[in-house]
C-alpha cells in the first residue's frame, strides 16, 4: 500500500477509472460495429439470421429443428470485449420464448461455458444474458437449452450488444496527468506511477471478485445480518 494511502483514496481512484474508462462506453447498440458475422443452427422460412441484427421489432429469427439443439453463434471482431449482451424476446408466442440459455465463449474449437441463465417467466422483451467480460473472445455461442411451455423452436426479435475495443481500457501512467486529476483532490500530487500500479491492482481485484460472485448463494432466510456479513 502506498505511504499515506487510505480506503478513501481507493474509492476516488475507482471513480477516476470509471469516469475516464467506462465513460467511453456510454453509447448505444454496438452490435453491427463489433460483430463480424452471425451463424444459427437452423432457420424457418422468412425468419432468417439477418433479422437478428436488423434492429426491427416486427421481424424475428425462428429456429427450425429438434428442441435442445438451437444456437446462435456470434463471431466477434478482433479486440472486442463485451460489456452487455441482450436477447430481444418476441413476447407474442410464449412457447417460442427461451426459458434457459447457456453462453459459451472462446476459440471456435475450444468453447468454454461462461454462464447459464434462467429467464424470468415475466420477461417478454430484453434479457441480459452476459455482462462485464474482461477479455476478448473470438466466438460467443448462445445455446437455447429449453423453451417455455415445452416449446420446440425458439423465436428472437434480435440481439443487442454494448461492447468496446480492448485497447480503449489499457491502463498506462499517462492517464494520470495533473490536468485530469483536478476533480479528484485525493489523487492530486500522487506520483503517476503509484496511481498506475494501484489502478492495476484494483482491476485485478475486480476481476477476481467478478469470478466468484456467481458462487455466492444467498441464504433462504436472508436477513440484514446476512447482508452485513457478505458486505
Question: Any overview of this molecule?
Answer:
The protein folds into 2 domains: 65 residues; 135 residues, Sandwich (Jelly Rolls). The protein contains 4 helices and 9 strands, in the order ααβββββββββαα. The strands form 2 sheets. The chain has a 5-stranded antiparallel beta sheet with strand order 1-3-8-5-6. A 4-stranded antiparallel beta sheet has the order 2-9-4-7, with no helix packed on it. β5 and β6 form a beta hairpin. The longest helix has 22 residues.
Q: What's the arrangement of secondary structure elements?
A:
Blueprint: H1 7-20, H2 31-34, E1 35-40, E2 61-62, E3 70-76, E4 80-89, E5 98-107, E6 110-118, E7 126-131, E8 139-147, E9 155-165, H3 192-213, H4 224-230
Antiparallel strand pairs: 1-3, 2-9, 3-8, 4-7, 4-9, 5-6, 5-8
CATH class of the largest domain: Mainly Beta
Indicate the CATH architecture of the largest domain: Sandwich
Mean pLDDT: 86
Distance between the termini: 22 Å
CATH superfamily heading of the largest domain: Galactose-binding domain-like
- What Rg is obtained from the alpha carbons, in whole angstroms? 21 Å
How much of the residues is beta strand, in percent?
A: 25-35%
In helices, the fraction of residues equals: 10-25%
* Unreliable segments of 5+ consecutive residues: none
SS field, number of helical segments = 4
- Give a quick account of the main beta sheet: strands, pairing sense, barrel closure: 5 strands, antiparallel
H-E string = HHEEEEEEEEEHH
GO molecular function: ligase activity; ubiquitin-protein transferase activity
Protein name: HECD3 ligase
InterPro entries: APC_su10/DOC_dom (IPR004939), Galactose-bd-like_sf (IPR008979), HECTD3 (IPR042469)
Keywords: Ligase
